[in-house]
Design goal:
The protein is mostly helical and about 290 residues long. The protein contains seven helices and two strands, in the order H-H-H-H-E-E-H-H-H. Strand 1 and strand 2 form a beta hairpin.
């Protein structure tokens, strides 16, 4: 049946959109990890420079072993952070490879940039109503249930038969018109009632599921707007903060002790990592809201 075929196609389209959404989120994860990797490589280099400088001061007997050990631990910690990022990149690439039918994807091939802006909630919901495969499935099930009622009603219509008959018995010929009326069993009427009840249930289920989808959509949209405001505040604040490079130069000029430098730079790095994570979550949430466009 045509309606059944349409429903199967929408079920396939829903599954396709889910897979593409998962792939999009993995790509955004990889984009964030690539940014973080570049930062960690710089941080390892800076930590090594600090350690080398403190080693020279220790050799000149200007500082003690405790400060030298702290500098070495800080350097080792940054190396560990870089190793962790590389591991996460490899794992993400493996996930993408599975989603890509087993075909390998190189990290260097991924260049995904997203604008955080989004259409208004009402216009975006109207767009989803007409394009989201999951919502279209609900409508398709209603259409299929309505078609089933028509089919069952057609089965209870009387079957009228008419024809002309000719027979020869013992050298005598008999001929004439014949007709008949076939009346369906009462069970057919019960099937119509069952089909009508199924339509009522399907319509009620469509309303309930659509309302649930809309509630989830509203929550995601409001969370997106909140996260976007926080992310933009972070961006603006970081424009006024001293960068890691400036902190490192201040340390080299002797304006900071090692412990003061380390505390300042760790605070800055953690805050910047948080901003990158927030950016990823923001774009992944946007991808969820725009799943129907995939």
């Amino acid at each position: 049946m045509e309606k059944q075929k349409e429903l199967l196609e929408l079920e396939y389209e829903t599954l396709r959109q889910e897979i593409l959404l998962n792939a999009k989120k993995q790509l955004l994860e990889l984009q964030t990890l690539q940014k973080l990797k570049g930062l960690e490589q710089k941080r390892v280099k800076q930590a090594k420079q600090v350690y080398d400088q403190i080693q020279r001061l220790f050799d000149a007997e200007q500082i003690g072993i405790l400060e030298l050990n702290k500098a070495k631990v800080a350097w080792l910690q940054e190396q560990f952070e870089l190793d962790q990022v590389n591991t996460r990149i490899r794992n993400t690439l493996l996930e993408l490879q599975k989603l890509n039918g087993g075909n390998r994807i190189e990290a260097e091939q991924v260049q995904l940039f997203e604008n955080p802006e989004l259409a208004s909630m009402q216009s975006l919901w109207e767009e989803k109503l007409s394009a989201d495969a999951e919502i279209q499935q609900l409508k398709a099930r209603e259409n299929l249930a309505q078609q089933q009622i028509k089919l069952e009603k057609n089965k209870i219509l009387p079957d009228l038969s008419i024809g002309y008959n000719h027979q020869g018995v013992n050298s005598s010929n008999y001929s004439g018109f014949l007709g008949g009326l076939s009346i369906p069993l009462w069970n057919s009427k019960n099937k119509v009632k069952a089909a009508e009840a199924n339509l009522e249930y399907t319509q009620a289920n469509t309303g309930a599921e659509t309302a649930e989808l809309y509630t989830r959509f509203q929550e995601n949209y409001q969370q997106y707007q909140l996260l976007k405001r926080k992310y933009q505040e972070y961006q603006k604040t970081f424009q006024d903060l001293n960068s890691e490079e400036l902190l490192f130069k201040a340390y080299e000029l002797g304006e900071f002790s090692f412990l003061d430098y380390y505390r300042e730079v760790e605070f800055y790095r953690q805050a910047y990592n948080n901003m990158l994570e927030m950016e990823k979550e923001l774009l992944q949430l946007k991808a969820t809201l725009l799943k129907h466009q995939l």
